[in-house]
Amino acid sequence: MGVPEVMRAVRIAEHGGPEVLETAEVPVPAPKAGEVLVRVSAVALNNTDLWTREGAYGRPGDPEALSGWRGPLDFPRIQGADVAGRVVAAGSGADEGLVGRRVVVDPAIYDAEGPDANPVGLMGSERDGGYAEYVTAPSERVHDVTESPLTDDQLATLPTAYGTALGMIERGRLKAGETVLVSGASGGVGIALIQIARARGARVLAISSGSKIDAVREAGAHDILDRARDIAGQIRDAAPEGIDVALDVVAGDLVAEGLPSLREGGRWVVAGALGGYGVTFDVRRLYLHNAQVIGSAMHTPAHFGLLMDLARRAEIQPVVAAAFPLDQAARAQEELARRLHVGKIVLRPRERSASGAGS
Fold first, then answer.
1. What is the enclosing helix (H) or strand (E) of 38?
2. Staple partner for 161: which of 74, 96, 188, 281, CB 3.0–4.6 Å?
3. Where do the structural domains in the chain lie, given as residue ranges?
4. Cα–Cα distance measured from residue 272 to residue 167, given in angstroms and rounded to the nearest whole number
5. Phi and psi torsions of 122, nearest 5°
């Protein structure tokens, strides 16, 4: 099947609420030198989609400034970082062996070459993303997962959530036999953290509540802490010797409450601020116990390679909460913002809604 000249895409022309998401007919992008063209099968939603749309990231020295992931956006911008699909064309110098292969795209834009480069941009923010029928990506960021038994929906959930989780675990140097605390345990990153930490042989304490507790336990958590109750007291009850590593996407008051629970040489890894970005804690609990607070933004190329190995062997089982056609992207983002689901929400750009809206 040939590549059409136009495609459907969902993009934003300004920051705002779900109403700024618009479905449009746009030209199919041509792969530049070193790039491939991917026909998108599924694209997963992330909190970064909401915050990029809202401009909620702030800037150094101006935390209230409207900004994308790493600065002002170039509008219009097609959202969507997490793409699974099939390569249909290759630009000059790109790996033509990828054409026809089922792939997952590493959405990070890195600051350097090499396996330990830092992400400084993100597909769907600093370049157009996968809320579309087609997307381009650098050939070296496209990973062949043709043989993976995971579905396209499951594969699409991996890049940001599982990549962020694996980056946190690697930077936190989590080892078998250690005790780990996972916040935001029912979210996409939280479920990923539980699954990967459990696979590494760690004992997992997960913070959750209400109807989501069973799903969090099913993901592999050994103990569930109720976020509506005294967290520090529950940690003491569940792990009297303390925790070795905290994997935290909530921050806010949780840092002050939980930091004293770290064992000597413990590591508190932060990769989100769902509970607020203003944090106050007793710094004596840091230096007197040789503890570390570590920031973790996504993953390195080496981390992503490890993740793709896990995907090929299906050693992780992503949870897909719901799937929507592309033209219901606004509804899907609203569902994500309500945080009533467990796992990940995906869009299927090849599907159309029953009403044909946006087609």
1. strand 35-44
2. 188
3. 6-160+300-348, 173-295
4. 13
5. -145, 135
Q: Helix or strand or coil: residue 118?
A: coil
Q: What is the pLDDT of residue 357?
A: 41
Mean pLDDT value across residues 32-52: 96
pTM of the model: 0.91
> What is the DSSP pairing of strand 119-122 with strand 21-27?
unpaired
Q: Taking the CA atoms of the chain, what radius of gyration do you get in angstroms?
A: 20
167 contacts 118 by C-beta, under 8 angstroms: no
Buried b (16+ CB within 10 A) or exposed e, 201-240: ebbbbbbbeeebbebbbebbbbbbbebeeebeebbeebbe
Look up tokens 């916040």; give the residue: 183
* CATH match of 173-295 with 1.10.540.10: no
Which 3-state string (H, E, C) describes 195-251?
HHHHHCCCEEEEEECHHHHHHHHHCCCCEEEECCCCHHHHHHHHCCCCEEEEEECCC
CATH superfamily of 6-160+300-348: Medium-chain alcohol dehydrogenases, catalytic domain (3.90.180.10)
* Region 232-242 average pLDDT: 97
What token pair was written down for 346? 């995906």
| β-sheet bridge partners, residue 348 | 325
β-pair partners for 89: 37
Between strands 243-248 and 262-270, the pairing is parallel
Q: Give a three-class secondary structure readout of 81-108.
A: CEEEEEEEEECCCCCHHHCCCEEEECCE
Residue closest to 243 by CA, chosen among 228, 230, 231: 231
Express each pLDDT in 238-276 by its tens digit.
999 999 999 999 999 999 999 999 999 999 999 999 899
Round to whole Å and give the CA distance between 118 and 105: 17
Cα(338)–Cα(350) distance, integer angstroms: 25
